[in-house]
Design brief:
With about 350 residues, this protein is α+β, with helices and mostly antiparallel strands. It has 11 helices and 8 strands. Among the domains are: about 110 residues, Flavocytochrome C3, Chain A, domain 1; about 120 residues, Methane Monooxygenase Hydroxylase, Chain G, domain 1 (Up-down Bundle). A hairpin with a 2-residue loop joins strand 7 and strand 8. Helix 8 runs antiparallel to helix 9 and helix 9 runs antiparallel to helix 10.
Length: about 350
């Protein structure tokens, strides 16, 4: 399933705020090959060793005590460094080795992964799997209160589109709890809001008309730029400069590149005028959303000059509670992204050495 950030964009354009957009969780075991399942996550850190192209179990260098059972962000950064420093595979990954397990163990413990690999001609009990870090979960999102309501009256949000629930990093399995609780509470409070509302504002027909013209006006565009090329450029910029390991120079480069890519939206090529299975049209709409979210993420990453949770700045590798024990908040003002901050709620728990 693809996540193109449309929930974030709809909310911020309606006047809601985003929070914690710099905190993105990467998972170290995304399959690189075969191409048909590229990016599929292999949940096998408990059952495998990670090897570089030299056959070295490289986690011994990065976390000699916990090895592959270190936190996901540490393992992802380790794999990324091995790849960037030339010890990765030709396809740009590392190897997951599960061959040391007893015969039949992987088939019993990980039947989905075992069957998936076997169907593609790979036996994970006898062969190495080629993997690389992949984007897994987004801690950032729409800013809500305890009723899962935004700053926009009547607008509620739930699930992974909401930010600030997990802090700077998410613990395993907490996403399921999050969507169950937030879905129930958001639905309950939205229903109460609707029931108590006596008068509703009329639909802004002019706004509807403008949006229809924007969306349908793309059909038949005769520019030079294919929308999927824009999406490819966005992916490359975000992976190269706003990915697992970040620094000021790269983030500033990313923001400049994002502005350049935005200009490409003025020269779209969407030859078909049909609304049925028009992939170019879909790609164009998604590219616009992706650019808005990409800019918000890069701006937040550049602003937070520390390392915290899933946000790693190699030029600021230490956590700085004195300066950065706060949320970054993003909103749109006159069509431009504006950043501010708000305090972290320490009423229940606080970091060691920080008073509530």
């Amino acid at each position: 399933m693809r996540n193109t950030g449309v929930g974030f964009v709809l909310a911020i354009e309606a006047g809601a705020k985003l929070i914690d957009m710099e905190f993105i969780q990467f998972y170290p075991l995304g399959l690189l090959y075969p191409e048909a399942i590229r990016g599929a996550i292999v949940g096998a850190l408990y059952y495998g060793h990670l090897l570089n192209v030299k056959g070295e179990r490289f986690m011994k260098k990065y976390d000699p005590e916990r090895l592959e059972l270190s936190t996901r962000d540490v393992v992802s950064r380790a794999a990324y460094r091995e790849i960037q420093e030339g010890r990765g595979t030709k396809r740009g990954g590392v190897y997951l080795d599960m061959r040391f397990n007893p015969p039949g163990f992987i088939k019993r413990q990980l039947p989905f992964i075992y069957n998936l690999c076997m169907n593609l001609g790979i036996n994970p009990e006898r062969e190495l799997l080629e993997v690389a870090p992949t984007c897994h979960y987004f801690m950032g999102g729409i800013k809500v209160n305890e009723k899962w309501a935004t700053d926009v009256p009547g607008l509620f949000a739930a699930g992974e589109v909401v930010g600030g629930v997990h802090g700077a990093n998410r613990l395993s399995q907490n996403s399921l709890t999050d969507i169950i609780v937030s879905g129930a509470r958001a639905g309950m409070y939205a229903a109460k809001y609707a029931k108590q509302k006596e008068k509703w504002l009329p639909i802004d027909e002019a706004q509807v008309k403008d949006e229809k013209e924007r969306i349908y006006g793309m059909l038949g565009e005769k520019g030079e730029t294919k929308p999927f090329e824009i999406k490819k450029k966005i992916k490359k910029v975000m992976w190269d400069y706003v990915g697992i390991i970040r620094n000021r120079r790269g983030l500033e480069r990313a923001l400049k590149e994002i502005k350049k890519i935005k200009e490409m939206l003025r020269d779209l090529s969407i030859p078909l005028t049909t609304m049925r299975y028009n992939i170019d049209w879909i790609d164009a709409i998604e590219a616009s959303n992706l650019l808005s979210v990409a800019e918000a993420i890069a701006a937040a990453c550049l602003t937070r000059t520390e390392t915290r949770g899933a946000h790693f700045r190699e030029d600021f590798p230490v956590r700085d509670d004195k300066k950065w024990l706060k949320h970054l908040v993003i909103e749109l003002k006159d069509g431009e992204i504006k950043l501010s901050s708000c305090p972290v709620d320490l009423s229940e728990v606080s970091p060691i050495g920080v008073d509530r």
